[in-house]
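Bug #77: duplicate submission created two jobs. Keeping one. Sequence:
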Amino acid sequence: MEETMIQEKGSTPVTAGAVFRTAGIVIGSAASFLVSSLIGGIICQKAGISGYAAQFTTGLVSLAFYIVILILLKKKCVLTTKGNGFFGGLLTGLFMVYSSVVALASELFVSTEGKTAKIVMPSELHFGSEQVWCILALFVAAGICEELLFRGIIFNVLRDLFGRSTVKGTVTAVFVSGILFGLYHFLNLTAGIGLDAVLPQVVSTAGLGIFLCAVYARWGNIWITVFLHALMDICVVLPGSMKNNENIVESISSNMSDPRKYIGFFIYAALAIYLLRKDKRPQMFTYSVSDDQ
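Kept job's structure:
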């Protein structure tokens, strides 16, 4: 309680210059994703790389861009800060681990043909090089790159803007960056995915983004959210690749077109609010992600 009150007294007013600077960083970081995707696409086309291997290659290009941005922002220690630990953070995000395992089991062992769901033994599953590339691509492109972009860069610059040393500033940054994470998935429309799948994905991932930000704000270790994010995407996408050799576009189209996905926003947002409860808030001020400190 005392530490939180002290942090609040240290707040500083938000200036127009700071707002424009932060907006520039957020927009520039998002633009770097588009530029790196374009460069990665050209490389893959020239080299004849396709499928998940292409997504992995493009992810490496994006990763290079994000590391440069962190260096320019003097926040490269985001990559190495241990914060309040790793395994404690995993326990905090345990619901996401549970959801990932349930999603994997449901995709592999539950059939929804007809009006009732029933347990079935999977047949004709295939695990080869494409599935290995699937895992690697999702770990790099979704796990590492999206976490560096939205938690490592965008969340941290928003937290600097709203007040890194205050509860109000940190919580505001959690929710704003989480919503931006959801809106980012509108880009999937450009890949040919229908609005019936993209809209539920945008809403549900906004809640997921808020939850991941809350975990990161509490623990300060980016590799916790990298692991959680990669695990969820792999558990959701890999079964379709193993059963039907689905690519990422087909997987999103088949998995996200369920209107029940909207409920995910409320579940994850509620969990985030619980994670940021008063007695846990001092934990958000026990680490630094600035290279100057």
